[in-house]
């Protein structure tokens, strides 16, 4: 049976080019780039070149690229590292939401598509605000933020504030060169675009001061200490360059497949609610709410049929929690309970989509035929 | 058979999984996420879920987590709080079995194509004349037939209790022999959503206004005070604010509305009959002489059961006994004290 992977928003299959690029750094090119010998210089050069490649794709200066351990670290670093009150929308990833809440920040509402409510954002901005963090693309429902509008508003109402965007879900879909000039800081995570887990980026515009989260050996110009993950950094750059080169083509290809997936489901079963209109979200996002369905039961049947998808985020125990994103969008709890997030990416084929339509439609039909409680 | 095994992360459900595997069943383990608040142990702490998952890995079965928190809050926690608020002593473990394990989980198992649900309870399911029977577990000390008494024919047909045939010591021995990481894990105690630090007082105090109460004798003379009248149970003898050394006194009445606890000597507690409602039957409704058990590990006593109304009956005790606290489950066994006939909840 073919294995159908529609969970690219959770993580993407690692690109073969990225795997290949990493391998030498697990063997002969093992050195610590901070050392004072030829092997160290060799590793250092690999990081410098990776930084140049990343800077080129992002349209920033190489010195503005800080390599971190993951997207969550990048988010936490900028939120913890900038003084003043932080502000973010309610639909942010928990890696932004929780640190903002911990610092006593302001959380603002969103509209029914999951886009930050610009009126509410305006009302939350004043001279006390030190940082505004607005995600470029939502990880659950795929909504694209109008960062130009957000940026204009922040510059006008809180001109001293640092504007950060969590662009972890954006790399495959949006031209990051158009985002970078709008913000002061941007988070990326390699494994969301075909790189390995355990490596991320935080861009920090020259002149913006972000206190380090991790101090020590002073790597990354004192901004992020810790011995470099050389293999990961090199692979991140390779994957990002490849993603950037394919992006336009993939946006067209995957939008067609996404439409085929959602339209296919709608033709097979009733009660398929498309959570966000297609023109407001990225091409890989196929988030639906299935009337009368419980996500946990549906995901079990999909897993059994070797279709990988997800619902909302899982808590520490692995149990599904009601989605804070859907709640913020005003989706009622019963509808949200039937959430299904299918996310497409670089390995998704037409056969994957057709198979997913069959499996999801069959599973939904079966679940609807049986009661959720005996009494 | 394709079996959905409820795994709490304890030794009993771990061994149940090993036995089911040995018997050739296709098994998937599930841990129910029930309680979202503080907990010492029980079924839903992250470390218990970790134990369940690691045991499943050892058994080479899939493991999933189902979040039934909303149902647990409604059927178990809210009911627990409202019962206490009206002076009734609830049994949350029984309500959890009734509404979660053998309703919500069983329905989920049906939806997902499982033939049966298995748990680590110490009880036995047998066959008798084409009907299912529910019997005490082999290990008399560990027998849990009382807490699963509400199962009927339809549920029993789809339920397995693999450790019901074993003594607890044998379960631990088997766990050690299979090398299960839970082999020496202590048994869970008490109600999973009540912490040992805060206790019932703190839990209820966060949810309802608990009130101090007067402790009086039959004549109305005040003898002492209790901090929370909602937590006092009929028949209780300790922690009722009376000085030691006097005659043995028992709680004979709790009036939550008047915040008054009445105490008296044992003879005042004795009754000849108990009214029971919310009846369930393993098979057909029964009447006549039976054995009756009124607490999880209490002894059973002889009584005559007589229907008095729809979904209500009277238990006439052959010998007078102490009053049963309202809210407690009353479970009927056959005269051999082996087979569960049915049960209900004590009213007065």
Question: What can you tell me about this protein's structure?
Answer:
The complex is a heterodimer of chains A (375) and B (348). By secondary structure, chain A is of the alpha/beta class. Chain A is built from twelve helices and twelve strands. Chain A has helices at residues 16-22, 38-58, 71-80, 94-102, 118-124, 147-157, 176-179, 230-268, 295-304, 324-328, 333-336, 350-368, and strands at residues 4-5, 65-68, 85-89, 106-108, 129-133, 162-166, 185-189, 200-204, 272-274, 285-290, 307-308, 339-343. In chain A, the strands form three sheets. A seven-stranded mixed sheet of chain A has the order 2-8-7-6-5-3-4, with helices on both faces. The radius of gyration of chain A is 21 Å and the shape is globular. In chain A, strand 3 (85-89), helix 4 (94-102) and strand 4 form a beta-alpha-beta unit. In chain B, strand 16 (329-333) and strand 17 form a beta hairpin. With 348 residues, chain B is an alpha/beta fold. In chain B, the strands form three sheets. Chain B has a six-stranded antiparallel beta barrel. Chain B has a five-stranded parallel sheet with strand order 3-2-1-4-7, sandwiched between helices. The A-B interface holds A 296-297, 300-301, 304, 314-321, 366-367, 370-375 and B 31, 33, 44-46, 49, 53, 64-67, 69, 71, 99, 103-104, 106-108, 110-113, 154-155.
